[in-house]
Every structure is written in C-alpha cells, then in structure tokens.
C-alpha cells in the first residue's frame, strides 16, 4: 500500500487533558481509523534546546523523549496532525511517503 510514515517526538512525561500526551495521541489516532501505532522510549537524546537526556541507573525517572509512529494514509495523518496542532500539544514530527504492507 502507498501512504505515509508519521513519526512524532515528545516528552515521555508530557501531559494533555489529564493523561500522558502519547496516550492521548494514540487514542485520537485510533478514533480516526488509523490501523495501528506504536510508542518507543529513547534511552538517550537531545532536542532543539541542546539539553542531553539519558537514562542512568540511579535516575530512571528522567524526562526522556518518546516517539509515536504510524504507517497510514496521507489524509488520516494530516487529520491527526491538525488535531494535535489544535490542541497545542508540543511535538516535533517527521512525515514522509512510504510503502507499507504485511505478509
């Protein structure tokens, strides 16, 4: 199938409407009819402010980035991005053309 790959980056502890922001995004994606999505937690990273975040043995609660990823149709991806923008959720995203499928 032809579509897009949407990858959102956000803070693992970011909250929106009394829940974790990535949980809110997953729920909205599901309601839009997106067939699947996954959340991945980084072990280290840095963003536009240049602060390095990494997991340490004694400091497991650091605010690390997570990515929320979808392979879906272009229309669904843009509807989700519009919802995120309307709710003013702080994310960075990457969107590109993709071929996807399953066996």
TrEMBL record:
- Xref: Gene3D superfamilies: 3.30.70.120
Pfam families of this UniProt entry?
Answer: DUF190
Q: Can you tell me which family this protein belongs to?
A: Belongs to the UPF0166 family.
Name of the protein in its database record:
Uncharacterized protein
Q: Which organism is it from?
A: Novimethylophilus kurashikiensis
